[in-house]
Amino acid sequence: MALKGLDIFKLSPKKNCKECGSPTCMAFSMKVAQGAVSIDACPYFSEDAKAAMSEATAPPMKTIKVGAGEQEMTLGGETVLFRHEKTFVNKTRYAVDICSCMDDATIDAKVAELKHVDYERIGERMYVEMIDVEFDPASGADRYAEVVKKVAGEGRVLILDCQDVDAAKAALEVCKETKPILNGANAQNYKEMNDLATAAGVVLGVHGADENELYDTLAALEKLGNKNLVFNACTSSVKAAFASAVQFRKAAIKDSNRTCGYPSIVNVSKLAKGDSHMQAALLSLFTVKYGSIVVAEKIGYAEALPLYGLRQNVFTDPQKPMKVEPGIYPINGGDENSICLTTVDFALTYFVVSGELERSGVPCNLIINDAGGLSVLTSWAAGKFSSSSIAKFFQEQDVEGKIKCRKLCIPGKVAVLKGELEAKMPGWEIIVAPREAVQLVKFLKDMQ
Amino acid sequence: MPFTAKSGKFSASINTLTMGTGEKAIVLGGENVFPFYTFDAPIANAPKVGIEITDGGLEAEPDCVKKYYEGCTTVADMAKKAATFEGVDFLSLHLEGGDPNGENKPTEDLIKIVKEVADAVDLPIVISGCKNVEKDAEIFAKASEVLDGRNAVMLAAKEENYKNVGASAGLAYKQVVGAESADDINLAKQLNVLLTQLGVDAKSIVMNVGTAAAGYGYEYVVSTMDRIKAAALQQGDATLQMPIITPVATETWGIKESVATEEDMPEWGDQEARGIDMEVETAAADLASGSNAVILKHPESVATIAKMIKALI
């Protein structure tokens, strides 16, 4: 059970020395209880008290680091089951699987295909972050190491999907510096795999035929002192995979069962082999419900566009609105002679408005103001979307130097700004656009 | 030591609601656990999948959907064909042509299509409005009349027209009343309360609590549904225990990921695959968050989502 601030305060040194950065021991204890600071920030807590506390105050789900250098990323560390309770902190990562049974040409093609998806969406790089390399016993350990070596330099985190100890050892030799996940421990081999993973300093992935076996193996590895783990959702059926992913997350966060508190890997490639639309559905399902890594056979633009958008939405902080970069966005081939429309930088506003503008087919320039990421009426009420802020933004961006057209449409909800804008921006014709984005298509077409 | 999970079964449950009549009737809701949490308690009524056609007929469909309706000349033909696709539980007739800002088709013309479609199929029917509140009130009143006895769903009453829609669909003709609100648990609750105060039976209300395509403000959809299901089940809030129906197709087939042709966006590749995956991924997220029914357009999407539901229940 999580400790309350007062419980921590009782154990605290009560010196109010401020060395931890908090004004009093009471304030510090409260912060520790909320998980805002670590107990280690206080130099005076007795070791016994700390040990008792760190067990009780440790986050319910481990934060696990994989990859090295620029590819380093964190998994897990979630503290809630639903995003509205606080926020989800570490987004789901996606992997495409290849196999040592494939020939070099197939592997090259698959790698090229997964690398093809690489784009930016609202300031976030969208790409396939991981490659899952499956071990094929028939082609042996040497071939596996060869394939692993081949893809290790592709700038993606590797998942060594291999339950054969010798093959795993050979593969680790050629890629351990990249900090892959050794996804190979099971009820039989976990001791050997544990030695390999700890020697190489990599995260160990745990398999189990069912939830009980999985749980027991995780517990056995914890007993050996290894808490640098991830677990695999069961692959016997979609239902079993969903049950294990959800139940382990629930047990960790709601019931403080730390043995369940590890990031998950869900292999939808195994759950729906050859059925790309089904895999798309499952990629989405396990993004919403508790997959830390989801492995698929293929992630092209068709799968990626909705998926990465969904992930960006689900993992956004509910307390912080999503913003787009302020600036001039030409739409439908808009140029310096095309009509201008302006609105705020709230991501949802941008997407809805730009979508409708695209649908209209009319070339135009969408000018996104810096309005603190708030919606039209909210930012207007907060004084962040006013005639002065718009006029100032136009100057800063040198809109007049870049665009010759002097027609500017403003959102219907802030029609009241028309007069002030005409006064502050001489030479511009200010036009009041409709109140709702869906009316924009008709509005623009009628104007032509 | 085996893994023992605490049960997440609740004492409250989602209302059960029947759509349609006779052999093809379907039941939504009834579960006392979160979506697909069959490990906590069995879910008797799996979520359902509807297929959408419009009053615009074949012409209004995206190119990649047209081939599935080859040979159909009327909307009723399409309805018959749609009923044969794998995984279809119900039919949604979207009367988008009624929109005064669009084609502005007269209500009589639309109702004629409703009648023809109803005669052509025995599936449960959803009538989706044109989004204009005045016109929808008119359409739903007439549609409720011609569909008398079919136990159809009128999608949907909104805050602005709930009195008219509630009175005609709910009170006069005992159809199922859809209650539409935009991504806000309080608005959803308020509309349910208003409708029941009007005399509409709470057990014949189905909610559309808001919808978006994946990537387009979808966080509001997830959180609204998460919170509604938590209120309905954990807190036993009877004013939020109505099942949820989510129109997916109307959102996903209009955005650029589905609309842009391969010539426009060569690097994005096959347009049909993009359209299907956008629809499928959005629907899967809706169902995982709490939808008891989703409405899709592409037959391949319908088959995929039906298969996913079957695998999870």
Derived structural class of chain A: alpha/beta
Query: Low-confidence segments of chain B, ≥5 residues, pLDDT <50?
Result: none
Number of strands of chain A: 17
Rg of chain B, alpha carbons: 19 Å
CATH superfamily of the largest domain in chain A: Dihydropteroate synthase-like
The backbone outline of chain A, from C-alpha atoms, is globular
Total separate domains of chain A? 3
Indicate the percent of residues in helices of chain A. Answer: 40-55%
In CATH terms, what is the architecture of chain B? Alpha-Beta Barrel
Contiguous runs where pLDDT drops below 50 for at least 5 residues of chain A: none
What separation lies between the terminal Cα atoms of chain B? 28 Å
Strand content bin of chain A: 15-25%
Q: Classify the fold: give the CATH topology of chain B.
A: TIM Barrel
**Helix percentage range of chain B:** 25-40%
What's the average pLDDT of chain B?
Answer: 96
Using the coordinates above, name the CATH class of the largest domain in chain A. Answer: Alpha Beta
Counting structural domains of chain B, the number is: 1
Give a nutshell description of this structure.
The complex is a heterodimer of chains A (448) and B (313). With 448 residues, chain A is of the alpha/beta class. Chain A contains 18 helices and 17 strands.
Notes on the structure:
The complex is a heterodimer of chains A (448) and B (313). Chain A has 448 residues and is α/β, with parallel strands linked by helices. Chain A is built from 18 helices and 17 strands. Helix content of chain A is 41%, strand content 17%. In chain A, helix 5 (140-152) runs parallel beside helix 6 (165-175), helix 6 runs parallel beside helix 7 (190-200) and helix 11 runs parallel beside helix 12. By secondary structure, chain B is an alpha/beta fold. Chain B is built from 11 helices and 10 strands. In chain B, helix 2 packs parallel to helix 3 (107-120), helix 3 (107-120) packs across helix 4 and helix 10 runs parallel beside helix 11 (299-312). The longest helix of chain B is centred in the last third of the chain and has 19 residues, at 271-289. At the A-B interface, helix 8, helix 9, helix 11, helix 12 and helix 13 of A face helix 7, helix 9, helix 10 and helix 11 of B.
